[in-house]
Amino acid sequence: MSLARESLAEADIALAPRASQSNELRVVSAPAKRRRGRPRKDGSGTTDQAAAILDAAITLFMKQGYQATTMSQIAEASGYSQSSLYYWYKKKEDLLESIVEKTGFSLRTASRIANLPDDKLTQLYAVLYADTLMMCKLPCDFYDLEDVAHTQEDTLSGFFTTYQQLTGAVRQIIEEGIESGEFIKIDAATAALDALAVNEGLQHRYHSTVRFPSSTCSMVEEEARTIFRSAEDVAHHAATITIEYLAPGCVPAKVRQQAIDNNWI
């Protein structure tokens, strides 16, 4: 199974010190069990309920704050009964934990490939692709999620830890790519920051396009809208921007195919 299609709840990741100068990523927990969707009152329920409930919760957390938001308000905003809400999330803290867990998908991808010795170009493409794809498939804009995390830093400290670890993994790949001659000489820390910022900006545009598909006030020119046809198209475009900058002359289509052949995306 390709990495991009694996469950976002597969495992948690930690950074373990390497014997040398960089950090090695490893998986430290077993796969989580996946729950079946509880049927709606009309019997048509699906696992999309969990995503809809999470989206409603994030919207309310942003609008009125975490403490002021009740479980009954979340149920009403999501359009589901309280019994359906409690089937998926027993308490508000469970919603926050689910938010943090989903954002770890990019880091889990990095953990599989960042310590392999060769082909840093394809490794970087795969990690950036997975990062953008994860954000595009979240039930909300990543920027909105970051805002909620800042209001609940004690509960959502893992959100920031995961992001820092992902940044470190991207920096590690870039550093090793510079050493191998695959990438131009550049400050790796700044390049990692820039790469993730590109991903975040494009996922924001994707979510905006999805939310307002018929808007006449789109900030995306007609000629560029093909980029946003799917989350996968956005992910490819985001990863392409960075690898073309760091490895002038590379052929993104070939890099993408290599990532697919390696089962990295």
Automatic annotation (TrEMBL):
<dbReference type="InterPro" id="IPR001647">
    <property type="entry name" value="HTH_TetR"/>
</dbReference>
<dbReference type="GO" id="GO:0000976">
    <property type="term" value="F:transcription cis-regulatory region binding"/>
</dbReference>
<feature type="domain" description="HTH tetR-type">
    <location>
        <begin position="47"/>
        <end position="107"/>
    </location>
</feature>
<dbReference type="InterPro" id="IPR050109">
    <property type="entry name" value="HTH-type_TetR-like_transc_reg"/>
</dbReference>
<dbReference type="InterPro" id="IPR009057">
    <property type="entry name" value="Homeodomain-like_sf"/>
</dbReference>
<protein>
    <submittedName>
        <fullName>Transcriptional regulator</fullName>
    </submittedName>
</protein>
<keyword id="KW-0805">Transcription regulation</keyword>
<dbReference type="InterPro" id="IPR036271">
    <property type="entry name" value="Tet_transcr_reg_TetR-rel_C_sf"/>
</dbReference>
<feature type="region of interest" description="Disordered">
    <location>
        <begin position="24"/>
        <end position="47"/>
    </location>
</feature>
<dbReference type="Pfam" id="PF00440">
    <property type="entry name" value="TetR_N"/>
</dbReference>
<dbReference type="GO" id="GO:0003700">
    <property type="term" value="F:DNA-binding transcription factor activity"/>
</dbReference>
<feature type="DNA-binding region" description="H-T-H motif">
    <location>
        <begin position="70"/>
        <end position="89"/>
    </location>
</feature>
<keyword id="KW-0804">Transcription</keyword>
<keyword id="KW-0238">DNA-binding</keyword>
